[in-house]
Amino acid sequence: MGKSIPESVRDRAADLRRQVRYHNHRYYVLDDPEVSDAEYDRLLRDLEALEKQYPDLVTPDSPTQRVGAEPLDAFETVTRAMPMLSLENAMDEGELRDWVGRVHKGLPGVSDVEFIAEPKLDGSSIELVYADGVLSTASTRGDGIRGENVTLNARTIKAVPLRLLDSPGPVPRLLEVRGEVFMPVAGFQKLNRRLEEAGEKTFANPRNAAAGSLRQLDPRVTASRPLDIFLYGIGRVEGADFRSHREAMDGLARFGLKTMERWASCRSEEDILRYHREMEAERDRLPYEIDGVVIKVNRMDYQERLGVRSRSPRHAIAFKFKPRQAVTRLLDIEVQVGRTGALTPVARLEPVSVGGVEVSNATLHNLDEIDRKDIRIGDAVVVQRAGDVIPEVVAPVKDRRTGKERKFVMPDRCPVCGSPVVRPEGEAVARCSGSECVQKLMGDLQHFGGKRAMDIDGLGEKLVEQLVQSGLARDPGDLYGLTREQLAGLERMGEKSAQNILDALEASRARPLDRVVFALGVRHVGESVAGLLVGAFGSLERLAAATETELAEVEGVGPIVARSVREWFTKPRNQGILEKLRRGGVQFSQPPKKREGGKLAGKTFVFTGGLASMTRDEAKDRVLAQGGKVGSSVSSNTGYVVAGESTGSKLAKAEKLGLTILTEEEFVRMVGPGK
Ligand code: IVH
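Output (structure tokens, whole complex):
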């Protein structure tokens, strides 16, 4: 089967893999890249192209094989020989001192015990198994013995090596490592913004986001989530021997695994308390969430002598931080209407200080969450704050109930405009069905003028409210019909500010088309989807006329997005908006990204046959971006003919005309690799 693979090709593939693996480690594990992203991408693309040409070259541990599996129906169960235990907690200094005392008592005759202190990451625990250096299984903790097989998902996490580094020194026959998969706070916030823009359910905190992303049945979803990992321990090991926790961690780091940072060696309770204080003070500045520190006895022989209790080892303890939680009264549940018309229940609370910040409102997420947690109006509730994430109601304190508490019912009419509330089957979110809901309109306008959309300076919450309330703006299209008199007539708006707004509107007319499309606020169309749509259709007219099938054919656009886009353009109200925008002089087509004097200025490219390392559209983009042109048929004016796989008559014609014919490799060298 397959073509026989020349020795030189095998060597080249092995070499590329080694390089990609090396740079992957520098970038994702050490956070210290040696080459630019473009150079790294080039190596990866070269490897992909080679593997495409010789499919027999592909091995499961090749760095090209991270994503790509089909969705699973369910996770399999993994049973482990060495259970993943949990940790006992110390909630305060007294409990910490008690634990240190117990450790000393458990080690009679030992006067000096070294402790290792590490941050306690707030994510989702995982075990990775490496057999002969290759990642074979990844599993969640589950009940400790039985976990879920999440190998396909773990493979998509870039900081998880698919193969261990084997120099210096050979890798162990078997290496089970344990750690925490987490989502950095910045990535979490970005993800939530993306989900919100797309009208999807957001995550309450980075931990839920990490756990939820790790447990996706479709690995492609996991791959799109900004997950990271730190390893903090080992399970079974064959073919290596570690005498202390630190020795083990140094060993893991040598094998290319990402181990805990910011650890400290402690010799006394005072050392531990100081470390705890320092980390707690630093907590809000770390790029990830931690909820305490973990203290471990360093020497393995001492760890063994101390043994385990029923579910936790005696050699380690979680020394928690002050909870950023408090109990208070849930006074009422109100409903807020968001930009997409989503009704979000918001808790009005008796004000309470949570870790130093006063909280009087908190999110309840959605109706399902309220039902699931059985939260009732009048309940005493636990409120939690995490980093700069919105405070949330965690749970009711049920044994404080008096019987006077009331269940919350979602109103069946929008509290703002009175339109019926709908809840599409299978969705957790209830929405206002009125297309002219004032609240929705205000959200739409603010989104439209937002920094990453039309970027209309001065169009803040206050002005939007005035425009809506005065009836001057019934949709975003009305903005471009505003006159100086109308604006100046608004309360607390002078001639000068009115002119500033008009200037800002004027400037926004020239925004590139992808931002215009994003600004329209079509459900499921975030910035990147908007870019894809514009890349595929080039003008608003063409996008508006595209059928659902045509939309779904765009790479990166799925059926849900396609339907949503189609629906948006079908609505008469939205067609009206488009008309107003057109009349208002807003950019409706994407001028080809021509660059005067670009590297390829004056050159016309014609493509024949498929390319292995990029799509035809990507290749065209590259040419256009550098000032070149793309033609569809070969003529004597054609500068270059790019010959991919399975070429046809165009190539023959090019040869006859004596044109310059480029291989894919030559083309890529000329224009740079795909994105
Ligand atoms: S050591 C015997 N070290 O906290 C358990 N755990 O119950 C050994 N965690 O499920 C755990 N950061 O997922 C350890 N630096 C750290 C940790 C850590 C977070 C998690 C772990 C475990 C939970 C404690």
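The mean pLDDT is 90.
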